[in-house]
What we know:
The structure is a single chain. This protein is of the alpha+beta class. The protein is elongated and about 125 Å long.
Amino acid sequence: MDEDTRRELKPLKLREKAAKFAKNTVNIQMNSFKRFGVWADWDAPYLTLFPEYEAAQIEVFGKMALKGYIYRGRKPVHWSPSSRTALAEAELEYPEGHISKSIYATFKIISASSASPQLVEEFLPDLYLAIWTTTPWTIPANAAVAVNPELEYVVAELHHAPEDVTVPLRKQTKVGGFLKFSDTKCFVIVASELVPALESKWGVKFAVHKIFPGSCLENFRYAHPISGKECPVVLGGDYITTESGTGLVHTAPGHGQEDYITGIKYGLPIISPVDDEGKFTEEAGEFNGLEVLGAGNVAIVKYLDEQLSLVLEEPYKHKYPYDWRTKKPTIFRATEQWFASVDGFRDMAMDAIGKVNWIPTQAKNRIVAMTASRSDWCISRQRTWGVPIPVFYHVHSKEPLISEETIAHVKDIVSKKGSDAWWYMSTEDLLPEKYRQNASEYYKGTDTMDVWFDSGSSWAAVLGKRDGLCFPADLYLEGSDQHRGWFQSSLLTSIAATGIAPYSCVVTHGFVLDEKGMKMSKSLGNVVDPDVVISGGKNTKDQPGYGADVLRLWVSSVDYTGDVLIGPQILRQMSDMYRKLRGTLRFLLSNLHDWNLENTVSYTKLPKIDQYALYQLGNIVETIKDNYELYQFYKIYQIIQRFTIVDLSNFYLDVAKDRLYVGGTTSLNRRSCQTVLAEHLISIVSVIAPILPHLAEDVWQYLPFEYATEDGSAAKFAFEIKWPVPNKRWLQMPADDVDFWSLILELRSEVNKILENARVGKLIGSSLEAKVYLHSSDAGVASRLQELCLAENEADALHRIFITSQVEVLDSLNTDLSTRMPHTGKYSDTRSEIWIGVARADGSKCERCWNYTTQVGSFPEHPTLCARCYDVINIHPLPAAAGVS
């Protein structure tokens, strides 16, 4: 809808269209969130345009007003000519590349102050104040020139640079009439520190005649460069620096915050000859009707040049506030607005900040800085859509009417009819009974509330009105830019109305960049669309669909406390990780196909390797729980990645295959392993469910056994089970055992390296063709290794752990053996050094389990089997069909 069409719409029609647009956008976002797997009360969401929400917001406004925190005043605010409304800081954006027309200009001094009349008498009437501004259009509103009392200033005589000295001027720099046509002596007052920079920039030489502190300039009088009126020199604050400009600041209290504060201090007039459309008013004289950001700016510069006040004009690239909706520049402009007096409750807000848990911790510094320096909050907007400021004005005096009765009555109406009622109901009907007889003396206001007041009231509209919710909220989550937005507006409204922060914890996240760390933009073609990541793009080869869980896995993998990267390569890595995790879960499911809870083997009967696996699992679950509670999701990702791929897949599951596939379907070894696998499956599904809900539910629907909830009923869905609580006995494994099994894992890694060398050297094909020899320099370690070699439970046997056919622990290591050994290596830790040798295994290969043993050929009925496989076959004879070759 173009601007003219929008302006022609009547208020109710515009509000209807705005509401329709808002609800449509909400539905689009809601559907996206559902596809992402976000869990919420989608059937009963809260929207700021719902009547009950609007009523709660009006109640918050009323509480603040009745406590004296709301007032109406004329102050400079960010104003958007394109939207014709005041804006809050959080409604602004600062795009790169903005260029302003900056000027250096001079204002002629009329007289010195009565306190120091002799200071500059000798230089009059040829003495000028030199100022610099990036907003020439504010010159008509000039009321003073401000100096810093702590800086040193000089009176300097201008000398044009000698003809043989060329001073380079920047491209697009224009020399003004003050320098071009000055035939008489000219003296300017500038900051002492800036003399060299100004000589270079202006292309002149300064002869310094006097030096004095800025405080001496107070109450000097100069002629306004346009109106000719006498204006004072005043003392400003530390916002006046020598980083740029001249050290003197053109002061227009109607067009700047610091200027306004200085103006109030000195009782300066607050002039703002600019209308709602950003055009000069009649108060600006000959510039009336010109756009201040366009032709008006040009006209002011031209006028100053013609009056020989312009020294220099040049483009100035800097950050400048733009309206976040229209993407057009804003101005500072003094208008009548409603404000929340932050000074009235700032100390309470600062105290409350200290009681909130801020994640990351540095976020606290940001909110502290922004709240400490926050000026009064302009909460009124000049637009039709939104929640009305429920105030009535006296027809003649314009005094606002706002009382406990008026607030309560309007709130009651809005809760039943919605805020549209403010526009279609008469003033008489909107006023409570107490005021109706005088209704003709009042009219209703047309201002609406700042959108940040809308969202900042969510704690009152949601937490305070819905069953099952409590105040304050456990958590607020948003981007780091919301320290000046939702986090702050929520804090200010809640503190002002209740004295309590609306949240116990605040988590902030950074922004998403592409793989190269660049901001995403359509022009660069580097935008990553979540819907395309999930469902795939038009070219599925370049943009495959990964599903929601891969995107969620990526979210968990990054440290969200800073800006994060995403792109095709990163997504491929996430997809690989996801497939590996899914593969691990498929392995667990497939090997539990014939298992149920009745097959559980008690902890005391489990092999040591199984007890160690449960010890690891218990620690992992506890660590993941701690990280969930600390919102450190990237650590959870790292733990899951390492645990499922390294600790589980590469060790325990790798070793377990022999027990699961070879040891007999109902053997203690297999059932004990299945007991451990079942515990892992339930625990892994539970801990990944918040991150990967689709995968967790997918696994649960294929769960081959029933899992009961606390009330004894079968859990039909993954989210019906509670967080896994590890058996205390799992975590009570003796420290010596834990250390020893850690050694075994490290030793196994070293053995695998030597086995690989043997494979490359053609000594062996598979690791089962090998025999491993070990010798430890530590008798205690050697004894424990020997125990594993002779373990009664085959699951703990060292050759099963190494996936070799034999392991022999040597009492001593002689030179002859170590020399004859085809492949050798060493493992060292703080306790012991272990020599490792690898040779061909003894005996023949069992055709069933592929292990090598001297027992093969000992059983006439099955001459190709080892003793273990022979026992399994005898207990579980092959089906008749299986014996036919």
